Protein backbone atom coordinates (compact mmCIF):
# COMPACT_ATOMS: atom_id res chain seq x y z
CA UNK A 1 0.00 0.00 0.00
CA UNK A 2 2.85 2.40 0.82
CA UNK A 3 4.40 1.80 -2.62
CA UNK A 4 1.18 2.74 -4.41
CA UNK A 5 0.71 5.83 -2.25
CA UNK A 6 4.27 6.90 -3.07
CA UNK A 7 3.65 6.48 -6.81
CA UNK A 8 0.46 8.56 -6.59
CA UNK A 9 2.29 11.28 -4.66
CA UNK A 10 5.07 11.28 -7.28
CA UNK A 11 2.51 11.66 -10.07
CA UNK A 12 0.71 14.51 -8.32
CA UNK A 13 4.00 16.27 -7.65
CA UNK A 14 5.10 15.92 -11.26
CA UNK A 15 1.74 17.24 -12.51
CA UNK A 16 2.00 20.16 -10.08
CA UNK A 17 5.04 21.31 -12.07
CA UNK A 18 2.60 22.47 -14.74
CA UNK A 19 1.58 25.30 -12.42
CA UNK A 20 -2.09 25.15 -13.33
CA UNK A 21 -5.09 23.09 -12.29
CA UNK A 22 -5.80 19.87 -14.12
CA UNK A 23 -9.21 18.23 -14.30
CA UNK A 24 -8.61 14.69 -15.48
CA UNK A 25 -8.98 11.01 -14.78
CA UNK A 26 -5.50 9.49 -14.87
CA UNK A 27 -4.82 5.76 -14.96
CA UNK A 28 -1.16 4.82 -14.64
CA UNK A 29 0.43 1.41 -14.88
CA UNK A 30 4.15 0.96 -14.20
CA UNK A 31 4.47 4.72 -13.94
CA UNK A 32 7.49 6.65 -12.84
CA UNK A 33 9.06 10.07 -13.13
CA UNK A 34 10.09 9.52 -16.77
CA UNK A 35 6.56 8.57 -17.84
CA UNK A 36 5.10 11.38 -15.73
CA UNK A 37 7.42 13.84 -17.46
CA UNK A 38 6.22 12.62 -20.87
CA UNK A 39 2.64 13.29 -19.74
CA UNK A 40 3.53 16.77 -18.46
CA UNK A 41 5.27 17.64 -21.74
CA UNK A 42 2.31 16.33 -23.77
CA UNK A 43 -0.10 18.47 -21.75
CA UNK A 44 2.08 21.55 -22.29
CA UNK A 45 1.89 21.18 -26.07
What does this structure look like?
The chain is mostly helical. The protein has one domain. 60% of the residues lie in helices and 0% in strands. α1 packs parallel to α2. It is globular, with a radius of gyration of 10 Å. The relative contact order is 0.21.
Question: Descriptors for this entry?
Answer:
single chain, 45 residues, mainly alpha, 60% helix
Short description:
With 45 residues, the protein is an all-alpha fold. It is built from two helices and no strands.
Tell me, rounded to a whole number, the average pLDDT: 92
Provide the gyration radius in Å.
10 Å
Whole-number total of structural domains: 1
Low-confidence stretches: none
Classify the beta-strand content into a percent band: under 5%
The H/E string reads HH
Largest sheet report: none
Secondary-structure-derived class: mainly alpha
Bin the helical content: 55-70%
Number of strands: 0
Number of helices: 2
What coarse outline follows from CA principal-axis ratios? globular
The N- and C-terminal alpha carbons lie at a distance of 34 Å
Amino acid sequence: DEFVRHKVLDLLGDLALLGRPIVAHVVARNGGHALNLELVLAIQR
